[in-house]
């Protein structure tokens, strides 16, 4: 069929043509927005799940919902070893600019921008050279005595409280959307939890929506014990069969293309219902199918191409980031997970050490490096699992 008309879109954070299976999450966030609009207290939100389940797509969609309510919004992608001050300053600057452009913003906006600039400038090393100092693009003088103590927790509480007051003044809200939240440092996680705690107690119209890997709740809990009650947690998982079929059938129908039932069976078996894989197999099948309706034979012919593309772009790019010692650890995990659900089942760290003939403590550096690189996570003490669905299956096909 015509590849130009191919409706499927496998891409990192790229919205699929049909956002299937997420109606519950979208409806729940509409309730959050409406409660905030009515002055009701609401918790911030945390989305968790494996890579490829569509967390970033959902995060962006929730942001669009907030924008449609004329909220000010900003998005951040956390990165290891990067200070939160700079990206957070840019995100809040954007959100307040949006508020000012959509509402008759009071003079208080300039006052807040002065506080924001003071907060941002604290990202600079006071011992660094003047020419190397970062200057935020905020055209007001920096304020003093507010959000500039240098203590991130104090400063963040004050900054987000002031941002919420600006939103309240104009009868709106502020949404901060934070992707890869598990990559925040311990000090930053603690500060963010403290700020969200303060906001929830006061019923302020500022919501943080975070997204991260399955162990994110444990990261938050380690920072602040009350985080278990502070956030509304939503686990984002693979699509069920009806939703996966809808993600394929609805875009095709708009192009006057249909699927045979056995073709949908084969596509669900290949993709496992993971949204990224649904798009990848759907795209390859469309390109190989000669005509409508798409058949199971078309899926079988196209599957190797989809798998080859995933092997390079989705699995291989991650595997290449691992050192030889880390790859050995990953392959041992995959061996232990053989027979599990695509290799997602957790592996006991003691069993990994036993198969490798090593002491568990000697493998800690490799395990910790893989966690930091986002290739595995520790959901429970003494176990590790892949952050990428079907990664175990991929590893078992690779030469040693």
From TrEMBL:
Pfam families to which the protein is assigned, alphabetical: AAA_16
UniProt keyword annotation of Flavoprotein present: no
Domain Cytochrome c intervals: 168-334
Region called Disordered, residue ranges: 1-20
GO molecular function: ATP binding; electron transfer activity; heme binding; metal ion binding
UniProt cross-references to SUPFAM superfamilies, sorted A to Z: P-loop containing nucleoside triphosphate hydrolases
Keywords, sorted A to Z: ATP-binding, Heme, Iron, Metal-binding, Nucleotide-binding
Spans traversing the lipid bilayer: none
Name used for this protein in its record: ATP-binding protein
């Amino acid at each position: 069929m015509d590849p130009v008309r191919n409706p499927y879109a496998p891409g990192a954070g790229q919205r699929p043509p049909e956002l299937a299976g997420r109606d519950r999450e979208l409806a729940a966030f509409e309730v959050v927005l409406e409660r905030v609009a009515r002055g009701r207290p609401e918790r911030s939100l945390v989305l968790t799940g494996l890579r490829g389940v569509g967390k970033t797509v959902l995060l962006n969609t929730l942001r669009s919902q907030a924008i449609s309510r004329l909220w000010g919004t900003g998005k951040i992608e956390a990165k290891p070893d990067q200070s939160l001050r700079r990206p957070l300053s840019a995100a809040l600057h954007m959100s307040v600019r949006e508020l000012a452009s959509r509402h008759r913003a009071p003079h208080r906006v300039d006052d807040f921008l002065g506080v924001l600039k003071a907060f941002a400038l604290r990202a600079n090393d006071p011992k660094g050279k003047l020419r190397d100092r970062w200057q935020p693009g905020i055209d007001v003088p920096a304020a003093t005595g507010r959000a500039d103590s240098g203590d991130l927790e104090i400063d963040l509480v004050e900054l987000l409280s002031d941002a919420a007051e600006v939103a309240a003044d104009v009868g709106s809200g502020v949404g901060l959307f934070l992707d890869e939240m598990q990559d925040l440092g311990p000090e930053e996680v603690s500060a963010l939890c403290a700020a969200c705690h303060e906001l929830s107690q006061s019923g302020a119209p500022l919501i943080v929506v975070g997204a991260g890997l399955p162990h994110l709740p444990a990261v938050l809990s380690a920072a602040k014990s009350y985080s278990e009650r502070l956030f509304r947690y939503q686990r984002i998982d693979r699509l069920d069969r009806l939703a996966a079929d809808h993600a394929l059938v609805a875009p095709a129908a708009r192009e006057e293309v249909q699927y045979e039932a056995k073709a949908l069976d084969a596509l669900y078996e290949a993709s496992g219902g993971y949204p990224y894989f649904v798009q990848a197999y759907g795209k390859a099948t469309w390109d190989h199918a000669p005509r409508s309706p798409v058949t199971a034979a078309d899926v079988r012919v196209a599957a190797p191409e989809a798998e080859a593309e995933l092997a390079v772009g989705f699995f291989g790019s991650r595997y290449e980031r691992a050192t030889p010692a880390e790859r050995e650890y990953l392959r041992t995990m995959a061996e232990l997970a053989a027979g599990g659900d695509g290799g997602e089942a957790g592996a006991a760290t003691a069993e990994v050490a036993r198969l490798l003939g090593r002491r568990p403590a000697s493998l800690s550096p490799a395990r910790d490096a893989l966690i930091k690189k986002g290739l595995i996570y520790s959901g429970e003490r003494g176990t590790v699992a892949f952050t990428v669905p079907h990664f175990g299956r991929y590893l078992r096909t690779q030469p040693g």
